[in-house]
Amino acid sequence: MTGAPLVLLVDDEQAILDGLAPFLERSGLEVATATDGEAALAAHGRTPADILVCDVLMPRLDGRALVRRLRSDGDWTPVVLLTQVGESYERSAALEEGADDYLNKPFDPQELLARVRAVLRRAVPGQPSLTASDVLVSGGLRVDRAARRATLDGRPVALTPKASLLLDYLMTHPGELLTRERLLAALWGFESMVTTRAVDHRVAEIRRVLDDDPAAPRFVETVPSGGYRFCGDVRRGARG
Amino acid sequence: MTERPARAARTVTRGAAVAAAVVVLVTAATAVLVALAAPGDSLRVTVRLLPLVLVVGALAVVAVLGTAVLRARTRRRSTQRLEHAREQARRFEQEARTRFLARLDHELKNPVTAIRAAVAGAGDDAGPEERARSLATLVSQSTRLSALVADLRKLAELGTQEIEDEDVDLAQVVRDAVEDVCAQADAAGAPRPAVDVALPTAPWPLPHVRGDVDLLYVAVYNLLANAVKFSPPGTRIEVRGTDDDGTVLVEVADAGPGIPQDEVGVVFDELARGRDARGLPGSGIGLALVRVVAQRHGGDVTLRSRVGQGTSVRLRVPTAGPSGGGPTVR
């Protein structure tokens, strides 16, 4: 036992396992590997991992089915999905199945390491994560994620679909610095064709609608020359 | 070329038939007039019932058959025309696909070749400097490949993904895009582009349109960035907004080198890169993206260019909102 968190890396592409596993080990994590969802379940059953990093498209049992299987067994081990096809659909599907985060392939290994560390920091062993919650609450703000409805101090607030998606992402990653580039890639799917102004516009919309003062933010904080961070405490809420 | 004599023969036959019909009609009319004009004379025609029924029946059958033949011929001709149009569309599609694959092949070959060369250069016998250079090449070329793949995927996705349907002030989008290209030039230490913006205020400002503000921003930004990229420093770029009764037109014009006439038709294709643009950065996705964004908003984009004078691109967006091409979010 080294005391380092155990990452179970699941991908049917051996070249990816061969490259990523040593990199994650050099970065201070313990790494086990599996080449499909079934093998991952067996490995996780033998030695429970602290986090799973899974490709979506895999033979036998794909990444999303693997997450579903774990969650239906009451296993809340964090999962980061590596998506690659039809990203808009996979983006929402990944979170709806109960994954804790996702990264679009091809990705920068450093970015994966940062995601893994952030998810591990947020995770409470044995507890469902915020991404698995139907309702998120922060102070007077209440977001019903399934119904895509938000209220502030009991009053309904109207956000455009993209701002709503951004608020959801910020709230499920509380306290974490999210760069504009990261948000743009994760939520818009743009990588190199556009400037990051789109993110600023939507943050401005969220602030306007939630009456959040950038100088003394209750919800979204600007990190100078960094990006944005959800600064309020976020907890799981109950529907009804 | 064999079609022309056949068409001429058909025209002659049709002319002869019309002439014969005219002669018969004139003769019959004259006979009736003569009969009426000669008092005292009478013309009695006795016809037996059975032959009359047979003749009328035969005439009716001929008329029905004739109509059917004419209809069938018309139908056959329109089917042939449709088939011809389909065949032409298939051919265009095939040609576009072949052009795309050839360009993709070209865009992929260079980075892959560079990666293989870098791997070979980072062998056991390589010195630390050579290895560092090879590693840097591996990083930059794989990043280039990633960006290309991501851009192509985004482009494919844009054709079908849900787009938002909200109120968009295109004049504000234009101002933001101009501000951004200038800020980027400043950040890169490049000379600030000379952009003139003309947006109407009288008798009224540009009407708002319905659509996805982020995508429209991407479209306008791409047009501007292209104009900046191809304009020699110091030359002016003009951006004009026009309210054209139900359509908002944004025109971005530059006084750059222009695009050769044979390339104007394909500049909106995926990965299209002009002969003169090879040395400049870019993946050739930008204009294809503008075209898809315009189409998803029920509009279009057109380009005019003169070599040595410059290029003008016009983006038209109807005020009514997105139409066709996929679902929208309300």
Describe the structure.
- The complex is a heterodimer of chains A (240) and B (330).
- Chain A is α/β, with parallel strands linked by helices.
- Chain A contains eight helices and 13 strands.
- In chain A, helix 6 (161-171) packs across helix 8.
- Chain A is globular and about 50 Å long.
- Chain A starts with 5 loop residues before the first strand and ends with a strand.
- In chain A, 39% of the residues are buried.
- The model of chain A has no long low-confidence stretch (mean pLDDT 88).
- With 330 residues, chain B is of the alpha/beta class.
- Chain B is built from seven helices and nine strands.
- Chain B is elongated.
- Classes of the chains: A alpha/beta (240), B alpha/beta (330).
- The interface between A and B is medium-sized, with 19 and 28 residues.
In summary, what is this structure?
Chain A: InterPro entries: CheY-like_superfamily (IPR011006), OmpR/PhoB-type_DNA-bd (IPR001867), Sig_transdc_resp-reg_C-effctor (IPR016032), Sig_transdc_resp-reg_receiver (IPR001789), WalR-like (IPR039420), WH-like_DNA-bd_sf (IPR036388). The complex is a heterodimer of chains A (240) and B (330). Chain A has 240 residues and is of the alpha/beta class.
Structural class of chain A: alpha/beta
Approximate strand percentage of chain B: 5-15%
The helicity of chain A comes to 25-40%
Total helical elements of chain A: 8
- End-to-end separation of chain A in angstroms reads 45 Å
Strand content of chain A: 15-25%
Mean of residue pLDDT values of chain B? 83
Helix content of chain B: 55-70%
Radius of gyration of chain A: 18 Å
Order of helices and strands of chain A: EHEHEHEHEHEEEEHEHHEEE
- Strand ordering within the main sheet of chain A: 2-1-3-4-5
Low-confidence stretches of chain A: none
CATH topology of the largest domain in chain A: Rossmann fold
Overall 3D geometry of chain A?
globular
End-to-end CA span of chain B? 55 Å
CATH superfamily grouping of the largest domain in chain A? Response regulator
Tally of helical runs of chain B: 7
The coarse silhouette of chain B is: elongated
Q: Quaternary status of these chains?
A: heterodimer
